[in-house]
């Protein structure tokens, strides 16, 4: 994430997958195309790649209605992945024992991420691609 004004806090409680679909259908070029068509969507679940990203997102999250916010981080096929394809640079996030785990940004505390079931309902960040 590079442009802070492009981060949107959505104060609806959705599962991780529902949040992903919500973000990708915002201003979609062709609503009839699948949400997986990269060239079709302008928004995605946010990736927080730097300390500045985390700090800004945590400040913006203070008005959230849940204690943690979904990010674009998901555990699939034995690895942590960002939905946008960016490299996962965090070494202090633990490996999961099962699929169905997603990363949240905790509003309080020092942790970069927490790991939760993707089926939990939380507020989330959408990020508008530049």
From TrEMBL:
Pfam families: Lectin_C
Residues covered by the C-type lectin domain: 1-127
InterPro entries to which the protein is assigned, alphabetical: C-type_lectin-like, C-type_lectin-like/link_sf, CTDL_fold
Domain of life according to the entry: Eukaryota
Gene3D superfamilies reported for this sequence: Mannose-Binding Protein A, subunit A (3.10.100.10)
Protein name per its UniProtKB record: Dromaiocalcin-1-like isoform X2
Organism encoding this protein: Xyrichtys novacula
């Amino acid at each position: 994430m590079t442009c802070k004004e492009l981060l949107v806090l959505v104060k609806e409680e959705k599962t991780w997958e529902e949040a992903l679909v919500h973000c990708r259908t915002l201003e979609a070029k062709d609503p009839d195309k699948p949400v997986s068509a990269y060239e079709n969507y302008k928004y995605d679940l946010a990736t927080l790649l730097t300390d500045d990203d985390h700090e800004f997102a945590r400040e913006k999250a203070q008005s959230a209605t849940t204690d943690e916010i979904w990010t674009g981080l998901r555990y699939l096929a034995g690895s942590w992945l960002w939905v946008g394809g960016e490299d996962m640079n965090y070494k202090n996030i633990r490996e999961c024992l099962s699929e169905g785990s997603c990363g949240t940004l905790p509003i309080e505390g020092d942790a970069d991420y927490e790991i939760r079931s993707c089926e939990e309902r939380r507020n989330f960040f959408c990020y508008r691609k530049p």
